[in-house]
Amino acid sequence: MMTSSRSELAPVFVLAPARSCSSLVAAMLGQHPELYGFPELRLFRAATVAELLIEPQPGAGMPARERTAGLVRALAQLHEGRQSVEAVERAFDWLRSRAAWDVTAVFDHLLALIAPLTGVEKSPETTRSDHALSRASRAYPSARYLHLVRHPWSTVASMLSAWSGLSYWKVPSSAAPQLCLDTWREQHARIAAFGEQVGPERFLRVQAENLINHPGEVLPVLCRWLGISSDEACITAMVHPERSPYSTWGPSNAGGGFDPKFLTSPALHEVSVPSSLAPPAEWSFRVPSLQGTMELVRQFGYDANRARREDVGMTRFGASAASRTRTPACRELTVSTLVTALGETCKVAPKRATWRAILAMPPEAFLISGIGKHRKYLSADSMGRVGTAQRGATVWFTGLPCSGKTSVASEVARVLLNSGNCPVVLDGDELRRGLSADLGFSATDRNEHVRRVSALAHRLARAGIVVLVALVSPYRAGRGAARDLHRASELDFFEVHVDTPLDECERRDTKGLYRLARAGRVPNVTGIDGPYERPAAPNLRLTPADGDVREQAALVLRLLVHRVSLKDNNA
Length: 571
What we know:
The protein contains 26 helices and eleven strands. The chain is of the alpha/beta class. Helix 9 crosses helix 14 (about 285-300).
C-alpha cells in the first residue's frame, strides 16, 4: 500500500456519459510518458469491494464478471505484468479477499503501483449519481477533471446501437431514444454543476470530436493544463491509443474493460459531428427534455452558427444556473434529492451539504427546498397548507436487511403524496452513500448513523413533514434516543418493526449481503454475525402474515390517521 497522503494524489478523471468516446480518449492520454491510462475501473459506483462483487438478479443488469473486467485486468497487468486467464483469476481472488475494503483503498493501491505516473480513470458510472461523483472527489481533493462532451444525437445513436442488443436491455424501442437523451442530459448537467464548484484550475471541458479529429491542436493545450510535457514526441505517442495494454479484448474470463467498439477498432479514427441541432425525425422526445438538452448543447459549443473549431473545442467551467436544474426521477422525496435541493436553495455547494450543514438549517429551509422542487407531485392546496394543516411525525421502520422496510415506507409515501400530503423517505442505503458516507458498520458507527438520521428526521418533522425512516437500526438504545428526541419537541414518533423471518430475508437477498456474510466475506451483517435487538413494544409489528406491501402500508396509514392530521383525498 502507498505511504503518501491521499491529499497528495492527483489522478485525472475523465467525466462523461457512456458512448462519449471516453475509451478512445483515455487510451490516448495513457500513451503520454507521464500518464497511465486505466481501463474502465467502475470503482466509485460502490462504497466497498463487496458491493462491486454483488451479482444482479438474472437479466437485471450486467454480470459482476463483466462489470469488473477492467478492474481485474488492471490488477493483473500491474501485479504480474500480463493479463492471462490465470493472472486474472488471481486478481479476482485478490479482490474477494479484500471485500471489506473501501473502493478508494483499491484505487490507492493501483495509483501506488503506477507511481510516479499520473493515473487517468474514465468510468461513465462515476457520473451516474451524485454519490459516486462525490465519493471520488472527496477521496482525491487534488484530482483534475476532464469533462468530455459529444454531440447528443451522435451519443444517442451510439447508445441505441450498443444497448439494444443486450440481454438485460428491456426498454421498448419507442421509449429508448428518450431514455438515452435523458441519460446524456442528466449526466452532463451533473458534471457541469460539479465543474462550477471545482474551478478552472482542476476542471476542463473538451469536445470529443475536436480532440479526436484535431489532436495536434487540442492535445498540446490539454497537456499544458495538466502540467505535463507537450513536446512533439509526447503528442506523437498519444495518437496511438491502440498501444494501450488494455486495447484488446482481454482474456476469456475478463473480456472487455473498455468500450466494445473501441476494442474492435482501437486505432485513432475521425468522428463525425451532426450538421444540425434538430433531432432526427425518427425520434420522439418530450419538450422539456429537449429544451434542457438544447441549453447544454449551446453551452458546450455545438451551436450551428459557431465555427466547429472555435477555441479548439475547449472551455473551462461555467454552467448556467438553468443547466443545473434537473427534474427529479424519484416518486418520493428521498434524502438525495432533498440534499441536492438544500444545496441549491441555501447556496450550499453539494459537496459541503454534510449532515452538520443540514441540521443547522431552520425548519423553514426544508419546506422551501424539500417541497418547492417537487410541485409536480403535490396538489396546489397541499402546497399552501403544508406545515400548518399537516402535523409532522416520524415513522421509524426497523428490521433485518431485506425485510421490506423501504418497500413499505415507499408505498406509504406514495399514498400520502397522492392524498396531497408531504412525506419524505429517508432510506438507510441512500444515507450510507451520502449523509453517513464516512461511517462503517462497527457498533460505534452504527450508533452515530442512527443519531444522524434521527436528528435529520426530527428537523423535518418540525417542519410539518411526515418522515418515513427505513433503517436497520439494530440497537434499542439508538431507537429509544430517536423517540425521546421527538417527544421532547412534542412530535409523534412511531416505531414499526418489519418482523420478517431471517430465512425469508435471505431468500430475497436483493443486495447479496447474506450470501457474502455466510461466505465470510463481509463482517458485521445484521442477523448473521451482527446483533439485532428486537423492539420490545413497537407501535406496530408487521409480519408476512399481514399481507403484501399494500396491505402492510394500509396498517401504517391507519396508525398515522389516528394520531396525525393528514389530508384524505381518497387516493
